[in-house]
Amino acid sequence: MKTYSIALLPGDGVGKPVTEAAWDVLQAVAKASDFALEGTTFPWSCEFYKQTGAMMPADGIETLRRFDAILLGAVGWPAEVPDSVSLHGLLLPIRKAFAQYANIRPHRLLTGVSGPLKSDDFDVLCIRENTEGEYSGAGGRVHQGTADEVAIETSIFTRKGVERILRFGFEQARVRRGKLASVTKSNAQKHTMVFWDEITRELAAEYPDVEVASYHIDAMAARMVMAPETLDVVVASNLFGDILTDLGAAIQGGLGFAASANINPDRSAPSMFEPVHGSAPDIAHLGIANPIAAIWSGAMMLAHLGESDAAARIMVAIEATTKAGIGAIPGRDKTETIAKAVLERLL
Amino acid sequence: MKTYSIALLPGDGVGKPVTEAAWDVLQAVAKASDFALEGTTFPWSCEFYKQTGAMMPADGIETLRRFDAILLGAVGWPAEVPDSVSLHGLLLPIRKAFAQYANIRPHRLLTGVSGPLKSDDFDVLCIRENTEGEYSGAGGRVHQGTADEVAIETSIFTRKGVERILRFGFEQARVRRGKLASVTKSNAQKHTMVFWDEITRELAAEYPDVEVASYHIDAMAARMVMAPETLDVVVASNLFGDILTDLGAAIQGGLGFAASANINPDRSAPSMFEPVHGSAPDIAHLGIANPIAAIWSGAMMLAHLGESDAAARIMVAIEATTKAGIGAIPGRDKTETIAKAVLERLL
Ligand SMILES: CC(C)[C@H](C(=O)O)[C@@H](O)C(=O)O
Ligand SMILES: CC(C)[C@H](C(=O)O)[C@@H](O)C(=O)O
Q1: Which of A143, A219, A275, B113 gives the lowest tally of CB atoms within 10 Å of its CB?
Q2: All domains of chain A, ordered by start, with CATH?
Q3: Measured from the CB, is residue B188 less than 6 Å from ligand 1?
Q4: pLDDT tens for residues B5-55?
């Protein structure tokens, strides 16, 4: 029997219960299929940081590299550990070290879920560049603490980085509704964004079957709420993708429904699957975190591993659950209730 | 009688008819008040560029400096003149040359206007930094056209620039509902955005009467659609403000309703007033551009000049117009019909 080894990183706060829920569902679907999932849990988190002084051991990346995939909950506990430590010590280094350059975030309204828009015609796949761009970390400050202080931050875009994410987007558009929207701000950022637009035009010539359009990030944010039905695949830089996917999550009813995959398309290292939501320290003790985003992320993991049937079965069970009204209203049902409802609906 | 000299820059496309409509309303309200408006029209536009090779004459900035205020329509005709020429040759230089560092954009649903959200509880004032940050223009490219090509773009934030826009935001919050939301992305951009957060905290100590909260741009974009009623004044960098105000425009029913003021709060140079929408070359010949955003921007100009009563009268007339259903539905009514309806309702 095929066995996949999965690194489980529940992380902090609500990351733990939602990862547990996702893992239960994954195990159940594996049991009913012809593959096995072997999980190894790593307690890397802000708690771990407070005990050891690091978010993960020095050989953390090497340890993770052996796995077929990583399932992450959420990290961060800003009141106790600065984001600069928690995120830059775990989440962001993993995305970069494993060249998980394609961050895929599916946004659609599940049956039974009511979003904030009047329209419920919403099915957008966001592809976010995940390793460079505005998150490069380059920059610094001078004259600190004085009236003359200046801070700079440099975005770095490489042809390799832009080309591969756009290509990934074109391929996705091909197997969806054939439409690709590329997002920049080339009317104000003349170096990096004009560069991105040029590469988009070059690649468009290679994909005559894909209808491609370029939008500025401001216009795209407006379009997401005014005419979301006109969008299919949306590809954007690290920062712009971050913004659009939180907006997408909001439109699909909230972060409790927003799944994501950090994909290394070359399969030279493991990919990582995580709900878009954070660790939500403020509600962590209430037991009401919606595990649907984490379970959906788990389904994306199975699809990536090649177990598409099992992935599809999970999606059917999720949708049957929300259709029955369970987990459909943010904050109403317990994490366990929702997880149990999904498990019961796994055919 | 007090006379204000106004520079009119209708610009391109729909910029022309909406500026004309706004000017008619401004003249009418002036006539009924105790001040006069003297307009001088400058044909600076893409048309002008095609004839002269520049978007404005070399002494354009010096010419504008003599005026009490500038009323702009919209510039740009991307199919014929690249944005890098049209915007960087007129709009952006004016904002910078006149230290119009506060870009104010009021977002609320006018009576009779139906937005895309189910909720209609929406009244947010966005304050966007308008002279530095992500629009600094610093950057470049190496190994152009090769597989090794790299493009960089540097955001530059100064203490002076950040402090003054935040201070402006605090002052606005004071005279509104007392709440300020500061927007950054300090969990991923460690230099500039952490800097901004620090200055926010410093200033917060000076404004104990203002309730201040910091949000990441992704979370703020989500909040704008999920819980807009929790927001009062939102202050953000050039780029983040740009994104949030297009989103705000969408939520208030479309760009036809989104007004803006580029304010030089020190009054060392003229301020500029313009609708948020662009020149819309695709619909420019149809005669259906909504002039409400331009008229509202004109009202903001009067308020800035100290004519608050006249400004308020225009706002009442705008709202009576949309309440009557005129100009309330994007693309339905003619520019002239809407302008005439506002004029008729000027008490
Ligand atoms: C926590 C933060 C750094 C992260 C990001 O912006 O990448 C998160 O917002 C996300 O979208 O995964
Ligand atoms: C045209 C463009 C450069 C401009 C901007 O981003 O500043 C516009 O989008 C705006 O919001 O005024």
Answers
A1: A143
A2: 1-114+253-347 (3.40.718.10), 116-251 (3.40.718.10)
A3: yes
A4: 999 999 999 999 999 999 999 999 999 999 999 999 999 999 999 999 999
